[in-house]
Amino acid sequence: MTEIELKLEILPADLDTLLGSGILGDPVEVVEQHSTYFDATDHRLHNAGFTLRIRRSGEARVQSVKATGPGASLFARSEWETPVIGDEPVLDHSSPLLNEFGPVAAELLPQFEISIQRRVWNLTENGSRIEAVVDTGLVTAGDRHTPILEMELELKDGNAIDLFVLARRIEVVVPCKFGVLSKAERGYRLLQALRTVVKAEPIELERGIAVSEALQAIAGSCFRQFRMNEAILLDRKNVEALHQARVALRRLRSAISLFKPLFRDETGKRLSGEFRWLAGVLGEARNLDVLLPNADELRERLGEARTSAYGDVIDALGSFRARALMIDFNEWLRCGEYLVPEATPEYPQPSAMEFACEALEKLRRKLKKHGRELAGIDDDQRHEARKDSKKLRYAVEFFGSFFTDKRFSRRYKRFIAAMETLQGTLGALNDLVTGPDVLDKHGLRDHPEAARLISHADKPALIRKAQAALDDVLDAKRFWR
Question: Are 391 and 438 in contact (CB under 8 A)?
Answer without folding.
Answer: no
